[in-house]
Amino acid sequence: MRIRTVSESTTQLTRYGFVNAYLVREEDGLTLVDTTMNAAARILAAAAEPIRRIALTHGHGDHVGSLDELKKRLPDVEVLMPEIDAQIHAGERKKTKGSWPKLETTPDTLLRAGDRVGSLEVIATPGHTPGHVSFLDTRDRTVIAGDVFTTYGRVEVTDHFYWRFPFAAMATEDKAQDAESARSLRALEPRLLLVGHGPPVRDPF
Ligand SMILES: [Zn+2]
Questions:
Q1: pLDDT tens across 178-191, in order?
Q2: From ligand 1's centre to the CA of 169, what distance in Å?
Q3: To the nearest whole number, what is the mean pLDDT of the chain?
Q4: What's the 77 CA to ligand 1 centre distance in angstroms?
Q5: Which of 77, 81, 21 is nearest to 55 (CA)?
Q6: 51-91: pLDDT as tens digits
Q7: HSE (CB half, 13 Å, CA atoms) of 70?
Q8: % of the chain beyond a pLDDT of 90
Q9: 19 C-alpha vs ligand 1 centroid, how far in Å?
Q10: 57 alpha carbon – ligand 1 mean position (Å)
Q11: DSSP 10
Q12: DSSP letter string over 160-204?
């Protein structure tokens, strides 16, 4: 797993060369945003401080893939998941495109727009999945945008096929909504854009 410091408070973890998670430093320890896949031990080894909470951008398998194993090793960790994607995992709503692996872990907290997770503000960015959220770090205007964008070569919205990473568009449920979410993230004028798939981009828009 590749470990890269991308800002004063954030470390990017890249599994298999193409799936990212992020460790965000807070006063009480770390927030892990997304979990990649089969990476619990590696994530724990990369964490210089205790992981206090795991916040998920959405419910797809490449983002929740290490959640059960991490929860086993960190029983006290708080798990935060977007409300609608949690309902899909609970079988209360129909599955949408992309992978929805069976999870043993149920979230402790359901995320809605405007919620705060430490320094991170929850931004509703539906489309890729119905509950997809992004996180704005209010300290430095870093945005963790999950799968609203990919950043291979250039910043691309996942509402359309892009040859460098076609999987993101293939797994996007509502393309119009996804494009609208991309516009709302642009309007935040992020200083640093971090995504599920691709390298960090400074001053992206
Ligand atoms: Zn993804």
A1: 999 999 999 999 99
A2: 10
A3: 97
A4: 23
A5: 81
A6: 999 999 999 999 999 999 999 999 999 999 999 999 999 99
A7: 32
A8: 96
A9: 7
A10: 9
A11: E
A12: S--TT-HHHHHT-S-HHHHHHHHHHHHHT--SEEE-SSS--EES-
